Amino acid sequence: xxxxxxxxxxxxxxxxxxxxxxxxxxxxxxxxxxxxxxxxxxxxxxxxxxxxxxxxxxxxxxxxxxxxxxxxxxxxxxxxxxxxxxxxxxxxxxxxxxxxxxxxxxxxxxx
Length: 111
Known about the structure:
The chain has strands at residues 7-12, 21-26, 29-36, 39-44, 58-60, 63-65, 72-73, 80-82, 91-92, 94-97, 100-104. With 111 residues, it is an all-beta fold. It has one domain (7-104): 3-layer Sandwich (Rieske Iron-sulfur Protein). It has a four-stranded antiparallel β-sheet, with no helix packed on it. It has a four-stranded antiparallel β-sheet with strand order 5-6-7-8, with no helix packed on it. A three-stranded antiparallel β-sheet has the order 1-11-10, with no helix packed on it. A hairpin with a 2-residue loop joins strand 2 and strand 3. The protein is globular and about 40 Å long. The two termini are 16 Å apart. The relative contact order is 0.24.
């Protein structure tokens, strides 16, 4: 990741406890902010299957599940986990500054 990466504050730490998923916005793009066992991750908020609102999904085990059809994604890598042959979603770097959660404007990966 380049040192000149632009970061955007999207939430406060107390808004996303462990096990929670929160829809946040990067401009007009939805992003799913996930707290998986205390580790924060951010992935594209739209499921590539039928463009479902992945940012409104929930954690099922370690995976983020789309609320429409149950397709699942690893919030760390963005890879599809069920079904595995499906397209993944982009991931975004996450950092915490004070009590603010920030995500990188540019995707870290583009599955």
